[in-house]
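Thread: Modeling a multi-component assembly for a lab meeting

Hi all, long-time lurker, first post. My supervisor asked me to bring a structural picture of a complex we are working on to next week's group meeting, and I have zero experience with this. I have the sequence lines for every component (502 residues in total). Could someone generate the structure of the whole assembly? Inputs are pasted exactly as I received them:
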Amino acid sequence: MNATNRTVVVTGLGATTPLGGDSASTWEGLKAGRSGVRPLQEEWAADLPVRIAARAAVDPGEIFPRAQARRLDRSAQFALIAAREAWANAGFEGKAGEGSTVNPDRLGAVIASGIGGVTTLLDQYDALKEKGARRVSPHTVPMMMPNGPSANVGLEVNARAGVHTPVSACASGSEAIGYAVEMIRTGRADIVVAGGTEAAIHPLPIAAFANMMAMTKDNDDPQGASRPFDTERNGFVLGEGAGVIVLESAEHAAARGARVYVEAVGQGVSADSHDIVQPEPTGNGIAFALQHLLDATDLSPQDVVHVNAHATSTPLGDVAELTALRKVFGNDADHIAVSGTKSMTGHLLGGAGGVETIATILALHHRTAPPTINIRNLDPEVCVDVVRDESRELPEGRIAALNDSFGFGGHNVVTAFRTV
Amino acid sequence: MAATQEEIVSGLAEIVNEIAGIPAEDVELDKSFTDDLDVDSLSMVEVVVAAEEKFNVKIPDDDVKNLKTVKDAADYILAHQG
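Re: Modeling a multi-component assembly
Sure thing. I ran the full set together rather than chain by chain. Output:
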């Protein structure tokens, strides 16, 4: 066995998103072009400039017993729901080493969030101000630490090969999956549970994102507000939820006769080093990540037929991304069907990479590219083929797809998956 | 008015139910918070803070480690309630 260059495959999927409480219902929603964006009903929303969001379709309060929920930040609850589904979907039962055949020393977990337990932090600050120091929950620190979701998922499956949390704003979920692929490829682990989660629908993050003019204020048209690639796009819609996959070495998956969704081919990463929040407008940083992906893996540009774009519905970013794709793929970009699924899910920040990885994998698995909804007038600067309004069939044969994720700070992560 | 031991146990049962999800009727005098009632060290702090409020008593951190069973806590509260 060459422990430094092993093939990695995906054997389990799990999600809880604005479109559904699991990966199957999320996929049905994506395929049908449903929007998960709704008006915020909370009293605190009334005075905010942004009063819409994409809440999780199934509230985690319906799933966790009250006593457990009070020790877990909402972001960790989403991560656990998605991880449990992915773990069972991969054919595993119970914790590694305890009745299960999985060796815990060869099992890792890499779950990321962009912000961490922000609602816990803010709620406990309210408790401090209103009720005093004695009433601050002793669970505050493990609930607000950004590695909390990863640590909780690690505990859930008994992962001992390493539990990690890469943080790169809205690229975090994809960076987690890329990190997990490397853990297996280089021989540190045989199985890694990986993905992204976020739960930041709270007046303070909303006010902060709104004041930096990153969010759409189309409160009167919730379902039409997120419109990547449209000429009138004016910011993202905040979403919440998680997407988690089980990655496994091809040998390990074959030895246990596991169902393999796709191969995880690898990743390309780069940093813009341009501005703390603005994307590099020519797309050169993204192009560098795409080129790195092609250089570092055996991915053939001819095989790539689908890209799940980062496409948050912001004026600058959406076009820079497609310009970079055209620049690196040249004529091979002609046969790529690009989907902007944030038009339906909103932007799950650190959860986006996880959920859109699931969308990318299922697009290959079902050979169907989900649509980008809400494009009334396609931006004339769009230089590739965007799937609009209705899902589209993908070709037969060996095909590959990319998932783009970029984050404030100039982080660019592109992951690649391929049918087996 | 000071609470009786019975009232204190019943109040503790409500608190443990809220914090650890254990049915109130399982919270009996001889039960250990850690071993029987799923109250770990962090959750014990929550139980103590809730009990302080409910029974108007102060339980310093140094005394919390001595409250291993429901009876320990009930006796402490009986002796110290204001």
